[in-house]
Amino acid sequence: MPFPALIVIEGGHGTGKTVVLQQFIYGALKSGLKVIVVTTETTTLGYLRALKSAGFDVINYFLKGYLKIYSTQIPRVKWVETTGRDLLSLTLNHMVSTVEEYDVYAIDSFNILIKGSKKEDIANFLTIVKRLVDRGKLVFLTLHPEELSEAFYSEIKAIADGYIELKNAEMGGRTLKVMNIVKLKGVPSVFENTITFEIDPAFGIKLVPMALAKA
Length: 215
Description:
- By secondary structure, the chain is α/β, with parallel strands linked by helices.
- It is built from eight helices and nine strands.
- The two termini are 30 Å apart.
């Protein structure tokens, strides 16, 4: 994984975006980096449980402050048209204010934060995120593709340092996850850009060689 970088992970529901992101989060923590996660799909406790169930025991990092998890699932807050826009602004302000303390930022998923946001708000967010990358930060965004416009796709693919697509596939009578690395700056020109894996409750991510997957 290039560092620093803006990495986008795209995939439909159930394709493994969150667990792949959690693999990168765990790797960052194991490398001594400090991580902030913004989850829009579960609570802070739910995200910690999901990490552990995928085989990533991060509780010590969380207790020591190396890992911070913020959830948009806020009790007694009623979502209105501008809620996503407000949360996008709050998230950006927090990223900027913690830039001297944290190394990695992960937003899972970005769709909720841009829902109801104006085009200029999203453009401003991405511009400042790229400035954070220039200051040595690693930023991950996960996206659901079916909810985004073609214009947004083209823009974010152009500015991202890494773009990863995930999908489900039937191979050899098994349902597997397929990761296609569309773009990844700063790595050797020759590398394996398609990775097949499955999520095992006991082991987390388990790679499946392509020949075995098709058998």
